Amino acid sequence: MLHPASEGAGQGLAGRPVRGPGPGADRAGHRVVLTGSASERDLVARVAYRAGLPTAAVLAGRTDLAQLAALIAGARLVVSGGHRGGASGHRLPTPSVVLFGPVPPARWGPPPERRRHRALWAGARAWPEWDGVGDHPTMVALGVDEVLAAVDEVERVVRVDRAVAA
């Protein structure tokens, strides 16, 4: 599950370059869905298009809170930019990777000891003044490779946890 938007300006993933999982994920048996609010539907549809995902994968504006919670609970992994859909996801057992913009993960993110949840943040560096238009520099600084590496890391933790529990 990918939640590319965020209620905070400049904190979502919608303006970011998108690479994978795309059609390859479907072929591997993974159903990828994108969530968001009704007002974010067009933006989320653009993300799906750039990722090579079908329009049926766009659930933005088509779920209520209970349905969103069910999607998160049933997802193999949640990737989210900002607060909605992910920042509180660490309270659920579903593994997550959450990208943080100007707000540090220490405020809303998963505690570091929760290894099934990974917060990415580039905010500790010095940044130029932001005019509030477009993506915040702290979001732009997080590269696609860094996000995919975090996804791999979380999936590895989940596999190890399952093996230990077996």
UniProtKB/TrEMBL annotation:
UniProt xrefs under Gene3D superfamilies: Glycogen Phosphorylase B
Region (Disordered): 1-29
Pfam families: Glyco_transf_9
Keywords: Glycosyltransferase, Transferase
GO cellular component: cytosol
Keyword Transferase in annotation: yes
Any one GO MF annotation of this record: ADP-heptose-lipopolysaccharide heptosyltransferase activity
GO biological-process terms attached to the record: lipopolysaccharide core region biosynthetic process
Amino-acid biosynthesis listed as a keyword: no
InterPro entries (UniProt xref): Glyco_trans_9, LPS_LOS_Heptosyltrfase
Protein name per Swiss-Prot or TrEMBL: Glycosyltransferase family 9 protein
